[in-house]
Design a protein that fits this description.
Alpha-Beta Plaits; about 120 residues; 4 strands; 4-stranded antiparallel sheet; 2 helices
């Protein structure tokens, strides 16, 4: 008699490092926001995401960008889901208008060269 082998489909529930991650863009529209105010808010969200990661959640804060002339700002994360980024924002008590799945594009070419198109 053969032993029954249990098959697992998808990532193991206890190994979150194998989960598929996506890039999540958080959009902020803050009329009158200063660079310092945004830096403080971004730092709070970064710390919140780091605390979730320390607890085993698959999330990583990547970077933030402020566009003063547009009164907008963006934070970028790598995470298993938009919901996980929303939780980081809720824990940090920082509002954001939208969370979106985004694509990071890395263009590689030699310094000083002109990129070509096909």
């Amino acid at each position: 008699m053969r032993a029954r082998v249990e098959r697992r489909y998808g990532p193991a529930m206890d190994d979150r490092s194998n989960l598929r991650r996506v890039t999540v863009l958080a959009e902020h529209y803050w009329p009158g926001v200063t660079a310092e105010a945004f830096r403080i808010a971004a730092e709070r969200v970064h710390l919140s995401a780091s605390a979730l990661a320390q607890a085993g959640e698959p999330i990583r804060y990547l970077h933030a960008t402020l566009v003063p002339s547009d009164e907008s700002a963006f934070c970028v994360f790598e995470a298993a889901s938009i919901e996980l980024v929303a939780r980081a924002y809720a824990n940090a008590q920082v509002p954001c208008e939208r969370l979106l799945i985004a694509l990071e594009v890395d263009v590689q070419h030699e310094p000083g060269s002109t990129p070509t198109t096909s």
